[in-house]
UniProtKB/TrEMBL annotation:
Top-rank taxon, per record: Bacteria
Entry keyword Transmembrane: yes
NCBIfam families from the UniProt entry: PRK05122.1, PRK12382.1
Any one GO molecular-function label of the UniProt entry: transmembrane transporter activity
Keyword Glycosyltransferase part of the UniProt annotation: no
Domain Major facilitator superfamily (MFS) profile residues, every copy: 218-410
Name of this chain's protein: Predicted arabinose efflux permease, MFS family
Keywords, alphabetical: Membrane, Transmembrane, Transmembrane helix
TM helices/strands, residue ranges: 21-47, 53-76, 88-109, 121-143, 155-176, 182-203, 223-250, 256-275, 287-303, 309-334, 346-370, 376-395
Amino acid sequence: MLPPSNSQSEIQNKESNLTKTLITIFSIIFLEFLIMGISLGIIPSYVHDTLKFSNVIVGLVIGLQYAATLLTRHVAGKMADTKGGKRSVITGILLSAFSGLFCVASYWFELTPVLSLISLVLGRILLGVGESYLVIGIFAWGFSLVSPNYVGKVMVWNGMGMYGGMACGAPLGIWLTSAFSLPVAFSGIIIFPALSYAAMLLLKTAPVPLNVPRLPFYKAVHLVWQSGSGLALASIGFGGIASFITLYFIQHSWEGASLALTAFGAGYIVMRLFFAHFPDKFGGARVAMVSLLIEIIGQLLIWKAPNAFAGIAGAGLTGIGMSLVFPSFGLIAVKKVTAENRGMAMAAYNAFFDLGVGLTAPVAGLVAGTGNYSNIYLLGAAAAVLSALLAYFEYKKGVTEERRIETKLA
């Protein structure tokens, strides 16, 4: 057999390097969202059942993390574009690890619920800020390590890490709590960032472009607000599952609440693995419309679920539906900025996700009231309908632009 030609070897080496880069990026994001999943799996019941606070307080504790993330997206985007993605990632890892210390302290203040809650809130805020720096940093770093043709793949693998970690983290947190203790589960929030740091060392350092015009955050928001709004509305369905699915299952005396988050993550990842090329092939707006229709069905199924299986299936359909929404709207957003400003563009775009999920928790707590948790998923379905309308408007805009170009060329 003849040895491969130089050109073939170069292609194989590039593909191998790309795969290693994407897997490393996935690992860093996965571990960050694993600790977020751990906290989501145990904090709602801890605040509600152990510390004896209301559903509104549960929602506020969960939502504070996303509020902290939202409020620091602009500084994370600026650091990633001007100091480099690596600096931003390291900052995120350190802050995430420190958040675990406050969560452990919360357990030791358990007999004084107010102090315990304050410690937990501080931990949630630190985790939110850490997630902001890490996610934006890894996006910017990943974009700089691959060619422009693979920017979509960086988004796809980031997304798989996000929801894969979240899906695995929830059952892991519940298992660690039941098999060992709550402090052991909280300690995972300290330990896993160390593994993220080890994975980060495998990535090449990318040069930071100097003397190029930088996009202010408010201008980035203006450029991506339509795509971002669609993402924010679509994320409400996920926010409802992440924040209240455990209490929803407990209310109905169902087993397997953690499996609902696992089903969401599994549906999300399967779609990313096998259908990630759909936005490029069929257009982001068109894929978003179909995806959101599936999400609507999933949310309605949870809303009217007669048993645990239906609730888990609804969560799985929601994951399938949401999977391609992020890259579909995201590709539209990234195309509106230069390569040097993609970190800020992703910061602005992700800020809409934070806004959607962050508002979901307290609003869902109000909607649930004294225990009507099913109404949260009706809210998620209604929000997905509005998101689908925004996707439709983007689709119509694209069709109009294509016709204008065709007319100009004719």
